Amino acid sequence: GHVQLLPPQNVTLVSKDFEMILTWTPGEGSPPDVTYTVRYKSQDHMDKWIKVPHCKNTPRTSCILTCMFSNIYVKGQAQVKAVSGRLQSPWVKSQFKDYFSEVELAPPVLILNVKENLIQVNASFPLPTCVENLTLKYELNHWEAGSEDKKKYEGYRKDSVTLDTTALRSNHCFSARSIFDSIELKHSQFSQPVCVPLNHKG
């Protein structure tokens, strides 16, 4: 009988948390020792598939490709095959995507610096190294714990927001989301609220 290794299924380039990731599911009846190998190409080098060193013979069913593509505006494509012992499946290609228009954002991480009569809020973005220069903004919400009344602030990535806390009491909460103005305006989810007690005397 002719033994065949069925190719991976649902091969898709997706974006999550600022990354570009190739995902797939195992082909039907895949053996337990199956591994996968991934290659990619960019539209500016269409004649050449390039190996992805960190996704050669990987047991995982995903591969991060964010920093493999030459730049964020060029569409790229990836392909994956299954390998088991001497058997290899055919390659299966993903669709074409580019980072700039497809990127899905992660919320920023808020860093709060509480001083005597003020609080300084900075937003840090969990960006892969190759896209550290993206022009991102963030929208910051500030509210008193238990209240529905939120104040909004907006700033560019490197901006910090400083609030005068002289008149504030009790717990105050902060949450932010990332904003990226690419082909359309994109927002991430809001970050988990961070709450701090202010001016507790005594």
TrEMBL record:
Coiled coil: none
Domain Fibronectin type-III: 7-108
InterPro entries: FN3_dom, FN3_sf, Ig-like_fold, Interferon/interleukin_rcp_dom, Type-II_Cytokine-TF_Rcpt
GO molecular function annotations of the record: cytokine receptor activity
Pfam name, any one: Interfer-bind
PROSITE patterns, alphabetized: FN3
Domain of life from the UniProt record: Eukaryota
Gene Ontology CC: plasma membrane
Name of protein: INLR1 protein
Organism: Sclerurus mexicanus
